[in-house]
């Protein structure tokens, strides 16, 4: 049903959208459809506030839409057997036809061929002239290929067998099921229920257990023993059970931590930050339910490059059973140094389901999740939280002492609430108070770190380290500045070299064909939407640049520096064309985030 304005006859959708009851609707009809100006003004304010910070209605173009006519994989990989689909195959089998339709090559040197000795994308590579012979055969540098044998640059891939078993739900979750049986229904806490179950079974035997760890009570130690009733001989599984203090230890002290960044915190970007001095890296937030369903796109977020020597993954969920099963799956199938729980995500999609920041207000579920994941993991479990949900109602200081009891190995605190987002500065005084409560568990502070001055000021508090998020997106060389305690007046050509390295890493990660190249371009443009906010040190009237200060429009010291300072999408596309060639005719891009969160 549509309400029409009595004067113009045009439908007034904004009126109908905010009617919540039949009474209000009939009142509107009785009044002749007139709209209260004050109510309309309040409605517009609510709409504008709700859309702030994100381009939710942005056009989404899949990389496959730029390459509709693709060559059959059987020809690209030069298989001896013919395509199993025959005439039903949707790809092109005529090489001459494909070469006539294929877009022009971007450059004369293929990064994959130069690095690995062979480009597996063959004729479909957008740099194919570097490794395609006159008779259209894919060439290989045998010496380089032999030197790369046995090397696995990227780990944690999802194999087809595991994906099939996840989709068919035949993967066993023995430890998780044993834990969930101890979680009482009717509102009882998981920790208390598990402790009573184990104590009732073992009786006095628990009293003789040794005290384990400075932060761990004998009662918490008993929680790590899964109760399994067995009949028969004693096996290693019965006696060899990792205690909290026997798990893999990670030294988090005084490290620089690159935050898990959705969209922009991809593997190529993390490689850039590792090169500039990041100590700890973490994969993008992954949904636990999608991981358990074997979704390839979600498992891609868990991939780890060989340069990431201290690497963790971040998972999001709101139920103990799925989170515990996900932790057991990750513990058995991938190589990580720690697992992080996202309890700080502010977006509505996650929060309204009870995940992200929502966990901070659901302490019973939060406890069950932490205890359950801790019981199945052989690596440390960390948590990332915010100060709270409401702006002036901090609750992190109440949660931190409880999380110490639940067995968390490290806590990261973002100094803002969910409601604040990025409109206010991070509260480092509150972070300092919470770090004192967390001791001796390490607590990392996060918020507004853009220079080594900010990092030094943060280290004057009692935090164990600092996490960088937007600061690393704006200037990834901030890690070098902090470690060398200096300002780096990086030139525009050096910054372009950084972007070129990113495109090389992107082509290696996503592929050098049209689909991979456009995916690399898309992530490059997302990064440039943040990087454009950097102001060169040589142009600053007052050092350092503050992350929430809105810079005036300025001209750089050369054309490229001015181009990189532009906040127009068209100029970002020009930069991408310098590195990845011209965009397709139907190309369309709008950044995911508006990247304009200034004071």
**Tell me, what's the shape?**
globular
User: What share of the residues lie within helices?
Assistant: 25-40%
Beta-strand level of the residues, as a percent range?
5-15%
Termini separation: 42 Å
Main sheet record: 9 strands, parallel
How many strand units? 11
Average predicted local confidence, pLDDT: 82
Radius of gyration: 27 Å
Q: Which residue ranges are poorly predicted, with pLDDT under 50 across at least 5 consecutive positions?
A: 1-29, 186-228
Number of helices: 27
Helix-and-strand structural type: alpha/beta
Describe this structure in words.
The chain is α/β, with parallel strands linked by helices and 599 residues long. It is 40% helix and 7% strand. The chain has helices at residues 13-17, 22-30, 37-50, 73-76, 95-101, 111-116, 142-147, 160-167, 174-180, 190-202, 218-222, 236-239, 267-276, 288-292, 296-299, 320-333, 348-351, 363-376, 396-406, 428-438, 452-459, 470-474, 478-484, 492-510, 514-531, 559-565, 569-580; strands at 154-155, 256-258, 281-282, 286-287, 304-305, 311-316, 338-343, 381-386, 410-414, 443-446, 465-468. Strands 2, 3, 4, 6, 7, 8, 9, 10 and 11 form a nine-stranded parallel sheet that branches. Helix 16 links the parallel strand 6 and strand 7.
Give a quick set of tags describing it.
599 residues, alpha/beta, globular, 27 helices, two-stranded antiparallel sheet, nine-stranded parallel beta sheet, disordered N terminus, single chain
């Amino acid at each position: 049903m549509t309400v029409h304005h009595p004067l113009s006859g045009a439908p007034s959708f904004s009126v109908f959208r905010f009617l919540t009851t039949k009474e209000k609707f009939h009142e509107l009809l009785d009044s002749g459809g007139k709209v209260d100006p004050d109510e309309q003004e309040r409605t517009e304010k609510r709409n504008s506030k709700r859309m702030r910070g994100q381009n939710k209605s942005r056009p989404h173009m899949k990389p496959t839409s730029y390459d509709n006519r693709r060559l059959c994989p059987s020809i690209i990989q030069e298989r001896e057997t013919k395509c199993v689909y025959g005439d039903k195959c949707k790809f092109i089998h005529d090489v001459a036809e494909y070469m006539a339709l294929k877009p022009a090559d971007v450059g004369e040197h293929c990064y994959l061929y130069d690095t690995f000795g062979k480009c597996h994308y063959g004729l479909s590579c957008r740099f194919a002239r570097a490794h395609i012979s006159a008779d259209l055969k894919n060439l290989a540098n045998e010496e380089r290929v032999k030197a790369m044998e046995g090397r696995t640059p990227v780990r944690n891939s999802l194999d087809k067998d595991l994906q099939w078993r996840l989709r068919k739900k035949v993967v066993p979750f023995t430890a998780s099921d044993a834990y969930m049986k101890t979680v009482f229904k009717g509102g009882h806490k998981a920790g208390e229920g598990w402790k009573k179950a184990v104590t009732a079974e073992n009786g006095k035997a628990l009293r003789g257990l040794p005290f384990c760890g400075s932060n761990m009570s004998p009662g918490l130690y008993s929680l790590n023993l899964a109760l399994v009733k067995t009949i028969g001989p004693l096996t290693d599984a019965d006696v060899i059970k990792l205690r909290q203090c026997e798990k893999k230890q990670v030294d988090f002290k005084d490290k620089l931590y690159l935050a898990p960044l959705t969209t922009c915190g991809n593997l190529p970007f993390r490689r850039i930050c590792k090169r500039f001095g990041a100590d700890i890296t973490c994969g993008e937030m992954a949904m636990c339910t999608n991981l358990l369903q074997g979704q390839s796109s979600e498992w891609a977020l868990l991939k780890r490059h060989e340069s990431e020597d201290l690497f963790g993954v971040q998972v999001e969920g709101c139920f103990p059973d799925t989170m515990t099963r996900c932790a057991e799956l990750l513990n058995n199938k991938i190589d990580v140094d720690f697992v992080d729980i996202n309890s700080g995500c502010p977006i509505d999609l996650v929060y309204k389901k009870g995940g992200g920041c929502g966990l901070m207000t659901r302490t019973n579920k939060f406890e069950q999740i932490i205890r359950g994941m801790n019981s199945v993991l052989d690596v440390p479990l960390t948590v990332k939280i915010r100060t709270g949900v409401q702006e002036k109602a901090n609750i992190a200081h109440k949660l931190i002492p409880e999380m110490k009891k639940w067995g968390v190995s490290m806590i990261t605190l973002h100094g803002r609430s969910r409601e604040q987002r990025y409109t206010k500065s991070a509260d480092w005084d509150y972070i300092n108070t919470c770090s004192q409560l967390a001791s001796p568990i390490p607590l990392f502070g996060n918020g507004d770190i853009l220079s080594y001055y900010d990092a030094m000021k943060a280290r004057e508090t009692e935090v164990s380290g600092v996490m960088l998020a937007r600061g690393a997106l704006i200037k990834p060389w901030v890690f070098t500045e902090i470690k060398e305690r200096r300002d780096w007046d990086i030139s525009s050509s050096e910054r372009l070299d950084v972007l070129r390295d990113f495109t090389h890493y992107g082509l290696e990660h996503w592929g050098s064909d049209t689909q991979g190249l456009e995916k690399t371009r898309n992530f490059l443009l997302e990064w440039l939407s943040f990087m454009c906010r950097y102001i060169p040190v040589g142009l600053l009237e007052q050092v350092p640049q503050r992350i929430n200060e809105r810079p005036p429009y300025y001209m750089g010291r050369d054309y490229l520096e001015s181009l990189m300072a532009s906040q127009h999408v068209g100029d970002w596309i020009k930069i991408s064309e310098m590195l990845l060639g011209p965009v397709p005719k139907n190309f369309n891009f709008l950044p995911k985030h508006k990247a304009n969160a200034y004071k």
